Records
---
Amino acid sequence: MAEPVIRVSGLKTSFQRKGLWLPVVRDVSFDVAAGETVALVGESGSGKSVTAMSLMRLYPPETCRIEGEVRLEGQDLLQFPERRMRDIRGNRVAMIFQEPMTSLNPSLTIGDQISEVLVAHRGLSLKAAAKETLALMEKVRIPSAAKRMQEYPHQLSGGMRQRIMIAMALACRPRLLIADEPTTALDVTIQAQILELIKLLQEEEGMGVLFITHDMGVVAEIADRTIVMYKGEAIERGATGEIFADPQRAYTKALLSAVPKLGSMTGEPGPARFPLIDVESGHPVEMPVVADTVSAEPVPLLQVRDLTTRFDIANGFLGARSGRVHAVESVSFDLKAGETLALVGESGCGKSTTGRTIMRLLNATSGSVKLDGREILDLTGQQLRDMRRHIQMIFQDPFASLNPRIEVGDAVAEPLLTHGIASGKRDARDQVADLMVKVGLQPDMAGRFPHEFSGGQRQRLCIARALAMAPQVIVADEAVSALDVSIKAQVINLMLDLQESLGLAYVFISHDMAVVERMSHRVAVMYLGEIVEIGPRRSIFENPQHPYTRRLLEAVPIPDPSRRGMRRGLSNDEIKSPVRPLSYVAPKRDYREVSPGHLVQVFGEEWGNATAAA
């Protein structure tokens, strides 16, 4: 049997803290063959990224101790001096990191950054490196590659930046490619393109791939073998199909049970909680059926009509206007008490701007937003502050939403005291204790600081703070997208519980179609600031009409290893820009009703082949 590209034996990584060496990764062993993809999966803190960084020896030896063996084609990397490791990194072993914007130098052009790798590792001249850089950019399917060589990272989309990172990783034709959560921050359609690209390049180069992720749908699509990590240990390993079909460990079962599966709600009338499995016992957790909480009142709680939000672009020394960003264009929808309307689409489609404009965090250019029949866009001063008692927002990043310098109990109590809901500090403390229990936390946790909580717990705190106002509507802007899969399932179940008990209405903003399918009553699909399709959740998912809706649904990774050989085809399309000239007049859009409440924008030639296929 041929020697694997890399063989890891008894890997142990420890970090120094207060004079003690604390092990974070313990006795991890695996190998990766040429042309094979091995997935390291687990939640945040499981040790999967530490494992990858240890293989590359990227931690400073003063504070990190790595033991065991890491043999690259028979040679133990842990025995190499640092100078020789610099020759290995980016040459024989390459790594793609999660966030390309923090991995690329903002002050250098794309071409210069890729050329630097070729000059350093392959000894090419600047002219030869520029020629090879162009070939690499074309290889990773960068449109107009010659022009893009002169551009800077901020001028590229997230998907294109990740392609640049892949081009840099492949510059020296590595034997092993380590991909550390390379698609987590990307939209679902861009994620599909990057996964397809990695598969295609692996076939062409014959390299081994170590793929690190917590997304089991991605694992099913790309991995030959899977290693499940939990608390620094590899607790289960095997062929991907076997892991999915017959998981042995309780944690693996819990991880798989929490994965949102597109199509799992087919035929279901309304939202449903995620079926969870207990990590310790492996037994299913009892889940009550979600009761129908949608109000039968004929007048909607929230009415949005022709909402338009545009931003002027100023250029030049005097700041003359050169164009406008048409972020939200003539958006209309209703929301009833106890109902969840999901706004879905890719980054830049206008869904977050819609939510922020409804909250009056951004000013609308025109349109109407009525809460309980009262126009929000006309409110100022104290009237606007009073309105915000009735409509609250949960942001994507809970850590950025909480003041790191004050205790979380004070953060939750602050709106109670500011709006005079609590009669004093003692009353506020009592209400905070009740809110902590309501979101599944212990009252005594109120004395802690934000950094002492996990990501899921911090998001629960943000929900508690939003609930403090006893709002009628909550705008949840990507409120679960940054969370691990099991924590995401728990937070969504909590939101459904609260909706049922308090009659809350949600505007749920997300790009995760599988989560939206389980969470929502109705769905609005946005593209370039416009709603292209809106209707009941079942209608949108079971009978999508618009080509863009179909594209979004087709790009969702399905946690089914039998689909691993399926090829999606690689697209070089980027989402179009919402920037328009000052003279641009938005066209009047027509909608047709496919079924009761299911409206689709009449689409024309702009959708090309997608229209013909539809």
---
Amino acid sequence: MAYLTDIEIAQQCKMQHITEIAKKAEVEKYIEQYGNYKAKIDLSLLDDAKDKPDGKLVLVTAITPTPAGEGKTTTTIGLADGMSRIGKKVTVALREPSLGPVFGVKGGAAGGGYAQVVPMEDINLHFTGDFHAITSANNLLAAMIDNHIQQGNQLGIDVRRITWKRCVDMNDRQLRFIVDGLGGKINGTPREDGFDITVASEVMAVLCLASSITDLKERLSRIVIGYNFKDEPVTCGEIGAAGAMTALLKDALKPNLVQTLEGTPAFVHGGPFANIAHGCNSVIATKTALKMGDYAITEAGFGADLGAEKLLDIKCRMAGLKPSAVVMVATIRALKMHGGLAKTQLGEENLEALEGGIPNLLRHVSNIKNVYKLPCVVAVNRFPTDTDKEIEFVIEKCKALGVNVCLSTVWADGGKGGEELAKEVVRLCEEEDNSGFTFSYNAEDTIEQKIKDIVTKVYGGDDVAFLPAAQKQIKKLTEMGYGNLPICVAKTQYSFSDDPTKLGAPEGFTVTVRNVKVSAGAGFIVVLTGDIMTMPGLPKVPAAMKIDVDENGKITGLF
């Protein structure tokens, strides 16, 4: 049977005009149209709606990802459409896709099959220009730093200790480590430099965590760009770039409104990676979704040890949010890969491999229930090759933890395939207790203790090894007054550990911390582990090679 591609399904959809979606979300007075199917929401909405009660927040997260796929964004969208089908007023809050994965290997972030947000091509490509604005703001600061040095360096910036990097929203390994400022005195000061991918920029994190234009400007001012010759931090505010950066970002701060294939309002805004940043859509978009729906469905990037941990420990802590329920997405195929099967062997029933891999799911579920104290349901994203025995095995294992399992067929069936999950999520929100919600660590503890709490409580590791450079950085950051900030761990997404080859639910491991730095504008400490990089590279056959456009402007090959 030949299946339609994601883009073919999306292009067949008869989209509603964005004004119709705005009416459904009750935001028609606040929209700024970007064509017929996209709009931005004016920030005054949240002030005007401040006395309106919030809806219930539902977090969709997943097991540790594998090449077999999990379908987290697809499940998020299908769940929202399923809730709409059972008569609930629902909104969805998602991250914007980065061009890096779109042209690289992972794909976009607009869902898949019959559970997508549209216009899919726009969302996966330039959308409303938010990422371009973030890139420009980031690089304006970089240019002003080097210009300050060129024009006399009044702040005494040590060019060997500039921590601010340039960025581009593309997988470009060639730019990870560069030397620039060559060509003589007129062309700047020669120094080591480098690029991050835009989604890993602190400007992205600042935009996603800011609550207003004023808060955005204050956060940008606090960004530490490096150190002077006296070993003191130098900030963006001292460089004088915060005002101009805010001007570049003022429209990007407004959340974007689009729709699902079934016409559910979707706020798609911000997009940091969860393996190297905090991995959540913007606070403003989430709060807008909560005001405009009785239920707001959101997702966090990669597995629950990364995206969900950061949403709960960073975003919820900063923004005062509390999820009413958590959906843990899994596939039988991915669990069998965690149990040791190769990708080519996943179509056959194999309870032994499933038994080997299911501890990964159970650890994630246990974390949500026992570490964060939140109600949880497992959504098994069903594939045609999954057997009844395999499904029954997962149901029984989850039942032992007091968690129900719902089968989801949203990829093939859209919202109809998410109705069973929707009913269980409504039950969790209305009948289960989330009042015990707590964080995995106390923000007032030392930086070392907070990192150890994440490794031992969430990852299931034994200990943390701090390399000498990291120990020195932690001491320095504590002395500078940053010791009480939350922790943002940059770690491989493929394992609970910092070793991507350790699948399943590894035990007895130690996580190595090699670098620690402050994102003072975002308001967290970034902890780099293992071999994690903030600029990915393209694969041998990039997805970009399959993308094309015909003489009528119709795009093909985009998933």
---
Amino acid sequence: MDSQIPYIAIAVVAVITLGLGLLIGKLTFGKSSKKEREQAEQEAETIRAEAKAQAETLKQSKLLEAKEEMLRQKTEFERDSIQKSKAFEQNDLKLRSKEQSLNQKLEGLQRKEQEVETIKTNLNRQLELLAVKKTELDKVQEEHIQKLEKIAKLTESEAKEQLIENLKDTARTQAMSYIKEIVDEAKIKANKEAKKVVIQTIQRVAAEHAIENSVSVFHIDSDDIKGQIIGREGRNIRALEAATGVEIIVDDTPETIVISGFDPVRREIARLALQRLVTDGRIHPARIEESVEKTRKQLEEHIVEIGERTVVELGIHGLHPELIRMVGRMRFRSSYGQNLLMHSKEVANLCAIMAAELGMNPKLAKRAGLLHDIGKVPDEESELSHALLGMKLAEKYNEHPAIINAIGAHHDEVEMAYVISPIVQACDAISGARPGARREMLQQYLQRLKELENLALSYDGVEKAYAIQAGRELRVIVEAEKISDKQSEELSFSLSQKIQNDMTYPGQIKVTVIREKRAVSFAK
């Protein structure tokens, strides 16, 4: 505030100077009298005196204000200084308390370090004592082992091997007993429900089946027609055989002509063409070729109709036209005497019922069941098995991945990746193993019986083996001196597992192990 006082005084002086200047100007330039000039000077003096008085008053007031401001700032400075000094004292106290706490912790850590060192020293002493005691115990143990070896007349390794062998035998026997108990218990618990599902499924499906042979019989009204069919020097029959790819057998059998061939479609074409020719009465090579070609086209249309009728009957939608045609071709294909189309329809219905019983998608299961043997009716021959070929066909025509996997896995040729696959496999086995569904070739039947007996004879202690009841039961006679009663049970279980894993057969095979001890003497 002191710096503002000179400026205020200067302002007052400037005001006075301005008043005087105005007054002098008035006196100088005006045409006034002397009296007026004196009067003006007096007024100027008055103004000057008032200006000085005002300036002095203003100066005093500003000095007072400046002093008050200085006192106020001094008071605030002293108050801030006191607060800061208090804060410094508090911080100093906190730092001193922290320093004291740290010193105490440091002392505690030093004490703990001393305790740890003491414990470590004690542990080292104890370890040294333990090492000494271990050495003494090892010596004592060696002495005991040497004494035991002298008493038992066996080395340590020989005793271990003997003990391990005994334990293995005991464990093997107990394991076989446990396995047999577990299997029996599982069969008791699961057999009822499984039988219920399977029996209900089989009872609800009654698909017909037809036995197809490699020959078809064509009946004629009279034997005179045989000569027309043979033709001059056999040209008609040769033309018919060349056009159809089958063998026409005309023998002495009355009113009968035999059509022989392994392809049922070709046999059917030959039979229908022959029927058309006989009805028409005009039989010559040109007419034969024309009739065979017409019959082939009609049969292709008939095959498509069969496929469409089948999928409509089963309620399957969205099937590719080529797959529908292959389904129709199944009608003219047989497997072990079982018609392939009837078998596929039966498997489809079985799959749908079993999937519904198990809470799965019955439509998907039915579709997979119908297509599972689609690889048996390809247009071209392939080196692949029918399961793998069917899987490729289903994949080609954009079937569901679960259906593709079920087709390829129903003979375990690929790994099962979906739950529907074992259902298709089981239903295929049910349809094929049903009594009366299939015929087996004699050679394959005898081969299976021989494999059964040889498998049993490969075990030690087996004296004789007989496959009876059409291969449904295997009776094994063992030597009483080599096989005990307990081992007989183990042999029966092991043999049944071996047959299950290594052989393919319909239904189930019962394994019976017979052991008897005979004592023979003669009275003379």
---
Amino acid sequence: MVIDWLAILSLLPILSVAVLLVGLRWPASRAMPVCYLVAVGLALFVWKVEFVQVAAASVNGLVVTGTLLYIIFGAILLLNTLQESGGLAAIRRGFMGVSPDRRVQVIIIAWLFGSFIEGAAGFGSPAAVAVPLLVGLGFPAMAAVMAGMIIQSTPVSFGAAGTPILVGVNNGLSGDPAVLAYAESIGKTEWYDFLSLIGTHVAVLHATAGTLIPLFVVAMMTRFFGKNRSFAEGLKIWKFALFSAFAMTIPYVALAYLLGPEFPTLFGSLIGLAVVVAAAALGFLTPKPEDTWDFDAKENWDEEWSGTLKINVDEGKNPSLLFLFVAWIPYLLVGALLVITRFPPVKGWVTAWTVEFPNLFGTEISSSFQPLYLPGSVFVVVSLATFLIHRMSFDGYIRAWVTSSKTLVKASVALIFTVPMVQVFINSSGGASGFDQMPIELAEGVANLAGGMWPIFAPFIGGMGAFVAGSNTVSNMMFSLFQFGVGQRIGADPTWIVALQAVGGAAGNMICVHNVVTASAVAGLIGQEGTIIRKTFIPFVYYALFAGSVGYAAVAWNAHNSIVNLGSVVALFIVSLAIYMIAKYGRNSNTAQ
């Protein structure tokens, strides 16, 4: 009973976020200070954590906040630099040349280009790159943020060259005797091979759930931001959406199986990007010109759709191929530098300069960051290069810096309380009460209720971890060993349960508070974070439930050779519902063949 009450109490910080931010629609700048106080109150008076530990966790959160603000500033600076140089207008016209259809554009930019940035840098970087690019192309700011958040699912587990697996799951499991014994019992004597096995399970789960993500993006975009507010207008492009999904997920799974966790997202997205852009340029499966879908005139948009990020796009003439290439050079440089700085020996050089704050206030909590390794540094460097490459005027470049600085100030208030709340929540162990940290107590309570149905719940625990921690990697660190133990307790293959944790942790990025705050800040959309989470919660539930059902079916098959089980029934229902919706609303789609 104590554990049950602890689970309920542990839920309060998350519940306060949901009620204030999503339910009451408070802006994050108002809601998150209250949520921070809830977490601090629980830590001090229920968990009886020492005040210095709470203070240390809060300071650590402020350090992380500073790195996030740096990334936000760099992303906005690069966008404003391109706007001042005229490169953004050329990029917009170039995309119109590939396809003027906004549904095609959002799949290419958010799903494929965003996945590539995730594979290279991770940690919310797609929002810092793809979201402002979509805004620059004429998308409503809220539509751009929603799309940028939804795609932060399938690519995330192998983001930053596999960090959530190679760091998150690795640190969560390594050294535990039960895990090492199990790995040896299945013939995985090399630890990397054991991680790769989990990574392959993760890839399979992501590929099944991720197949519908591009279709989710376009259907929700047309439903919430289209003139006719229609899901059907998004579903009509189902052929192109599924083609774009498979173009990434098929090589993604193959790379996970053949090469390990470092490469599925990075190279799977590149392969998909090359295939899909070439296909779209040839008109393969794209709408005919008369069926092109676009947003309504801007004056008819709802007021809450638009952010403070103002983009002036000169339609003008179509750019020459040379000028279009020059316009794209900054984004090509971003991708190249993110990839280069993530691989040794360059990574060792850029991470050599580390700013450290060890043992804050005498506690075991330490904080550090590596300025040259942060994506914000890449954005600033590329902005300076753009000033030279695009031969900008000095006055125009100064305007880009001034505008970006003003935007940053508005984003800072929410993050200053959001990240410290997370740090207090996850650093709540070691108090006089003897309770484990809040996330573990909450997970234990859910596990006791779920019993043998745990595989379906496992992704939701991973998602909860990412929701509060803001990171798939941190969620995996917190919960991988716990998930492994639950798997053994219920007689399931624990590698599948850990894989479900990793997949749920990736999906949790869709609703992660500080990722939403960051993406909203980049788009100049401050104060609408709760509205965005209400929208992204729909695909999150789909993703976690479908992955959990497939995982349950896989566990049941391994244990009992049983095809018909709760997991397979739920998964079949979801697939059947998707087929029904496509058949009903997508059959009249007129696409070029």
